[in-house]
Every structure is written in structure tokens, then in C-alpha cells.
């Protein structure tokens, strides 16, 4: 399909405003990392990095390829690779001057060897396991791991960090605070052994807003930068604390009507005869389906905006096509259709789609096909 009939617009002004909101929630001495992994949560890696390069201190990515993409758009910013990198990527990581999260000794060995060959220093961040039980170094092993890493040629332990398990999905912060205690214990053990990393970070979006004790020397801003709340509970907790941050969605996902069809009562629509018209209807075919990231579970439950009015999804969402009921909209061929975002006085949030398909807004925005064009759009744009 032609990419100009389905695209994503990014409101760069809103993006900058969201980041300023979080900047205001941290101390002047606390650095701000914006996480742009997974194509900037679906918003466009290069466009987001270029927009924010003067407004943030660090960028966080998942992989070497993402780090390379960010470095082209924001060449002067430190970039931390948060995900796993294989040994054969070590030469490139060291050569580009990227930082790497580590929790395996063989990763440290490979980075050390690459740094020695290149005559460079390789800065690493230790991931500490405090209760999420994903990647990470157990607290009882962290000192031995760190001392061994620090003794490797070319290795500098620049940072130490952890990630919270349940800070955003509950109004009870007790487990998050337990993780903070465990993290502080790990930091104390490291300091007692003579290792004092410059960068200490734990807070993501919810922690930044709600719990200043999680800020340390740096915070990692993810979904909030894009104007999406991490969860309903985070929003409620902010309200209970008297906090009123304004987060404005950055993404608008658009497509166009490529065909209009008149359907008679009794006619079926789409695969599986899953919908039968009970009245005369006008249907719009739009060239977006589950390949583009519009979830198949929105069949019969999703809705879009056409001429500022809601148009319900009719029948099954197909691989590259979806049908909308535009009977009462006055729609015409090639009209713009908004799948996520605002049109006129109406708005469809990623949270609405997430609720209908039983997931979270993160997944809705991150799964918009990266091949679709991301372009500046929305309100006043940044030069």
C-alpha cells in the first residue's frame, strides 16, 4: 500500500510541553533521560530524538540499531542501551561511545576486549534486581560483579539502576518502596567496596510524578513524554496528592477513505459474515488493518473519526482494510479519517483502544507499523 494514505502525525509542540512538565517535577540537579525505544513508543525514533535533542540530558534505547538512529538525530547526547546486546556488537557499541546496561559477565568481557582493542573507555550501567525479576544482578552478587567488572581493562562503571515492578498499576506504593530500600542497600554495598557510580536512576514516568524519593541523580521518562498516562491508577494517585500535571497526547494516526459502498438491509460485511446490515448503510473502506497495527480485536467495537463524527468499525478488521459506518457523516472519497487523535471537537485516545482490546496504551501506540510515515503535525510546529 502507498504510505501516503495512512500516516502518523507527531505534535512536536506537545512533545516539548510534556517533557517540560516532567522537567519541572525533578530537581535542578537531576538529569532527565527520555526513553525512545521501540521507535519512540511508536512515535518515530528520528523525529522524536531530533525534536528533543536540546531539551533532554540523555536518551534511552533498547538496542544498538536504535542507538545508531538516535545518534544521527542527536549526536551530542549520551545514549544508554537498556536491552541486551550480543558480544559481536561490542566493537560498534564501544566505537560509537554508547553506554550499555550489563548484568552478565560475558557481556562485560566482550566490551572490555573491544575497548582494549580500540584504546577507549567503555561506560557501563549495572542493572540491579530488586523485585521485578527480569534482567538484573541479585543484590547479594552485585559487589562481586561490580569489582570484577571494574577490574576489566577499559571498563568504567558509570551508572547503577533498577526498574519498578508495580509503581504505576496500584494506589499502594509499598512494594515500590521496598524496591527502593533494596536498591539503596545495593548502592550502600557498592560504596562500601569503593564503587561510586555517577549516575543512579530508578524512576520512570509514575515515579517521576508521584515519588521524589525515587529520583536519585537521573530519571527515565518513557510513556509520559508522549502524553499518555502509565495507568488509571497513576492518574488517580496524582490527583490524590494534589498534583495536576497536564499530559497532552502527541500522536495522531490518520488514513483516508478509499471507497464508499452502499449496503442494503440483510447484506453482510467483511469476513465470516460477522456483521449483517439491519438498515441501508453507507460504508467507508479505509486501507488500514492489523498489519498496520489496527488490532483485529477492534472488529465490531472500534470507532474512528470522520468529519468530526464517530464512525463505528463494521465487520472484521482485515490485514490491510477496515470498514466504517459513515452513514450519518456526509463522508466523501479521500476524506481524512482519524484512528487515534483529535478531529474537530472529538478525540479518540489510545487508552480507549487499549480498553477495548484488553491491553495497555503502550501496546496500542508501539504497535503502529514503523513503516508508516511519521511527520510533524498538530498545532504550531518547531523549526
Based on the model shown, name its key terms:
383 residues; alpha/beta; TIM Barrel; Lyase, Ornithine Decarboxylase, Chain A, domain 1; 12 helices
Summary of the model, kept short:
The chain is an alpha/beta fold. The protein contains twelve helices and 21 strands. The protein folds into two domains: 229 residues, Alanine racemase (TIM Barrel); 98 residues, Lyase, Ornithine Decarboxylase, Chain A, domain 1 (Beta Barrel), CATH 2.40.37.
Q: What secondary-structure arrangement, pairings included, does this model have?
A:
Elements: E1 6-10, H1 12-23, E2 31-35, H2 37-41, H3 45-52, E3 58-61, H4 64-73, E4 79-81, H5 90-96, E5 99-102, H6 105-118, E6 122-129, E7 137-138, H7 139-150, E8 155-161, H8 174-192, E9 199-201, H9 205-210, E10 218-221, H10 232-240, E11 251-256, E12 259-263, E13 268-269, E14 275-276, E15 281-286, E16 303-306, E17 309-314, E18 322-325, E19 336-343, E20 346-348, H11 350-357, H12 361-366, E21 373-376
Parallel strand pairs: 1-21, 2-3, 2-10, 3-4, 4-5, 5-6, 6-7, 6-8, 8-9
Antiparallel strand pairs: 1-11, 11-19, 12-15, 13-14, 15-18, 16-17, 16-19, 17-18, 19-20
Helix pairs in contact: 3-4, 5-6, 7-8
What's the average pLDDT?
Answer: 96
Question: What percentage of the residues does DSSP assign to strands (E)?
Answer: 15-25%
The tally of helices reads: 12
By CATH reckoning, the class of the largest domain would read Alpha Beta
| Helical content class | 25-40%
Low-pLDDT segments, ≥5 res: none
CATH superfamily of the largest domain, by name, is: Alanine racemase
How many domains, in number, for the residues? 2
| Major pleated sheet | 10 strands, mixed
The CATH topology of the largest domain comes to: TIM Barrel
CATH architecture descriptor text of the largest domain:
Alpha-Beta Barrel
> Ends: how far apart?
30 Å
- From the spread of the alpha carbons, the general shape counts as elongated
Using only C-alpha atoms, the radius of gyration works out to 24 Å
Report the strand count.
Answer: 21
- Classify the secondary structure makeup into a structural class: alpha/beta
Amino acid at each position: 500500500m502507498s504510505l501516503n494514505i495512512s500516516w502518523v502525525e507527531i505534535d512536536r509542540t506537545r512533545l516539548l510541553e510534556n517533557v517540560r512538565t516532567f522537567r519541572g517535577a525533578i530537581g535542578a540537579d537531576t538529569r532527565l533521560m527520555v526513553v525512545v525505544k521501540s521507535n519512540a513508543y511508536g512515535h518515530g525514533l528520528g523525529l522524536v530524538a531530533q525534536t528533543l535533542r536540546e531539551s533532554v540530558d540523555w536518551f534511552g534505547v533498547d538496542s544498538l540499531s536504535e542507538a545508531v538512529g538516535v545518534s544521527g538525530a542527536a549526536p551530542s547526547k549520551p545514549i544508554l542501551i537498556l536491552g541486551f546486546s550480543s558480544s559481536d556488537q561490542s566493537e560498534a557499541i564501544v566505537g560509537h561511545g554508547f553506554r550499555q546496561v550489563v548484568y552478565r559477565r560475558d557481556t562485560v568481557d566482550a566490551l572490555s576486549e573491544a575497548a582494549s582493542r580500540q584504546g577507549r573507555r567503555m561506560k557501563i550501567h549495572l542493572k540491579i534486581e530488586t523485585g521485578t525479576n527480569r534482567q538484573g544482578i541479585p543484590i547479594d552478587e552485585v559487589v562481586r560483579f561490580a569489582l570484577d567488572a571494574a577490574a576489566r581493562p577499559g571498563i568504567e562503571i558509570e551508572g547503577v539502576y533498577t526498574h519498578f515492578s508495580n509503581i504505576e498499576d496500584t494506589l499502594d506504593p509499598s512494594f515500590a518502596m521496598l524496591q527502593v530500600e533494596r536498591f539503596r542497600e545495593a548502592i550502600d554495598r557498592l560504596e562500601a567496596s569503593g564503587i561510586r557510580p555517577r549516575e543512579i536512576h530508578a524512576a520512570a514516568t509514575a515515579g517521576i510524578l508521584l515519588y521524589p524519593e525515587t529520583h536519585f541523580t537521573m530519571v527515565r521518562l518513557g510513556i509520559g513524554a508522549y502524553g499518555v498516562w502509565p495507568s488509571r491508577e497513576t492518574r488517580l494517585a496524582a490527583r490524590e496528592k494534589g498534583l495536576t500535571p497536564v499530559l497532552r497526547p502527541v500522536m495522531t494516526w490518520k488514513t483516508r477513505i478509499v471507497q464508499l459502498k452502499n449496503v442494503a438491509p440483510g447484506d453482510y460485511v467483511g469476513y465470516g459474515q460477522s456483521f449483517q446490515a439491519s438498515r441501508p448503510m453507507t460504508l467507508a473502506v479505509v486501507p488500514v488493518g492489523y498489519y498496520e497495527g489496527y488490532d483485529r480485536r477492534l472488529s465490531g467495537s472500534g470507532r474512528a473519526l470522520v468529519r468530526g463524527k464517530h464512525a463505528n468499525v463494521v465487520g472484521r478488521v482485515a490485514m490491510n482494510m477496515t470498514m466504517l459506518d459513515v452513514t450519518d457523516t456526509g463522508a466523501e472519497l479521500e476524506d481524512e479519517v482519524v484512528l487515534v487523535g483529535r478531529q474537530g471537537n472529538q478525540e479518540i485516545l489510545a487508552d480507549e483502544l487499549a480498553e477495548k482490546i484488553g491491553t495497555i496504551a503502550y501496546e496500542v501506540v508501539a504497535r503502529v507499523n514503523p513503516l508508516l510515515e511519521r511527520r510533524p503535525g498538530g498545532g504550531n510546529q518547531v523549526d
